[in-house]
Amino acid sequence: MPSGGARDRAWFDALFTAHSTALYRYLRRRLPAAHGGSTQDAEDLVAEVLVVAWRRREDVPDGAELPWLYRTAGFLLANHRRRVRALPVAELPQDADDAADVEHVVVQDDVVRRALAALSPRDRRILLLHAWEGVTGDDLALALGISRGGADAALSRARARLRTVWADAQDDAPVSTQATAP
Questions:
Q1: What gap in Å lies between CA 95 and CA 146, rounded to an integer?
Q2: What is the pTM of this model?
């Protein structure tokens, strides 16, 4: 990203090229199909985030564009979730992995979802920004709108709460009846 220069079309083109894929992944992960989200919703939200970035281009901090975009995406996603009510429609994956132990994957996925669902929205957001998006340090602080020390402490507390919830979720997970290969 060019920094310190004019916030013109070239700046925006560079912003788009550098961050649109990361934004799409960020939003797509948070819009699971089972809860009413779609690829189109994620694409629409990316477009909305980029419109906000263009309109507020003077507010986008040099060198911290992606955390600013994630923060903006989080606000727009919250608004989207308030507008959209999910329909209970299940989607089948188009390409099933025959080699995977489906029962184990389903159980493990359910355990992860239950553990994350048991956390506060703030803890979940902090952990997902860090784990899925790779946002750390000053960038995490900027995305959360808090100081670096506050971000480090919040991440530490969220991890501790996840460890507790994870242990409880593992205890509640059903045991597979299939024998596992050595």
A1: 42
A2: 0.53
Residues in the chain: 182
State the Rg of the chain over Cα. 19
The gap between the terminal CA atoms of the chain, to the nearest Å, is 49
- Walk me through the domains of the chain, giving residue ranges and CATH numbers: 1-88 (1.10.1740.10), 101-176 (1.10.10.10)
Are the C-beta atoms of residues 127 and 158 closer than 8 Å to each other? yes
pLDDT tens for 42-82 read 899 999 999 999 999 999 999 999 999 999 999 898 888 87
Contact 27, 45 (CB under 8 A): yes
What value, to the nearest 5°, has the Cα angle with vertex 124 and ends 116 and 74? 135
Q: What is the DSSP letter of 61?
A: P
* Structure-token match 């900027």, residue found: 142
